[in-house]
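Case 272 in the screening queue. Each case pairs one protein sequence with one candidate compound; here the compound is magnesium ion. For every case the pipeline is the same: read the inputs, emit a complex structure as tokens, and attach any notable structural observations.

Predict complex for case 272.
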Amino acid sequence: MNHTNGRPDGPPPAVEARDLVKHYGDVQAVRGVDLSVAPGEVFGFLGPNGAGKSTTVRMLTTLLTITSGHAHVCGVDVTSDPDAARRRIGVALQEAGLDPRQTGRELLILQGRLFGMSTADAGERARHLLALVELEDAADRRIKGYSGGMKRRLDLASALVHEPEVLFLDEPTTGLDPASRLTVWEEVRRINGRGTTVFLTTQYLEEADQLCDRLAIIDDGVIVRRGTPAELKADLRARWNRDGEPTLDDVFLDATGRTRERAAGEVQEVSA
Ligand SMILES: Nc1ncnc2c1ncn2[C@@H]1O[C@H](COP(=O)(O)OP(=O)(O)O)[C@@H](O)[C@H]1O
Ligand SMILES: [Mg+2]
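Case 272 output:
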């Protein structure tokens, strides 16, 4: 099968999911998700708690088995070739697993060594990444003294050690204060500006609005809206019977409100 998205000579999508499903026993966490993320995009996966965001990310990143459907990263099937898929991607998950006794630099060098780099190369890569996420001054302090924002930035850096083509971030700013959130946004923009595709989950509408080229809203395991932030607002504007311009908040409320009707079988899924 070819995964070039209809462009025979173009690169394959950075991320592609077809009818992705995950059941945990009786819980239908993800119920048929279709996604296609172009190389170089920042793609936002927005949804309330329990919507199925982390489950989807874990399937896309080989961390969780897929109940049914298909997922590819950079054209590689994550089920049939998980090792090759893992080499193309970096992942920073919601529960960061940082050792508080290490320094930031030690952590990054260790990661590089785990990816097979020499000590010298791993040291050079660590220096580069510490500069990228603006942690040079804190590089040789123990992680236990880092703020929440610094830990998230170190986590971003550690997901980039092997120069992945696609970076998955699961709620990178949840629980951060507003100033730290802005710093993480800056780092995400900078990483994307260097050519890395970013797949980001968030509960924050403003974050999706500020960072994402395109986004999908997932609720109860199903994608209920997709498009650019501007398209989503324009779509709601066309049905809007109030004054003023709809915000992404309004889109989100509208989208998740319609899921109650969906339970009654009335709502159609929006396709790209
Ligand atoms: N290991 C698990 N076992 C059973 N149910 C789970 C498990 N992980 C997640 N779920 C359920 O799957 C649904 C989606 O969860 P999740 O993907 O974590 O959502 P989100 O990341 O959007 O908050 C929720 O109903 C959650 O309770
Ligand atoms: Mg989650």
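Case 272 observations:
- The longest strand covers residues 27-37.
- The two ends are 22 Å apart (CA to CA).
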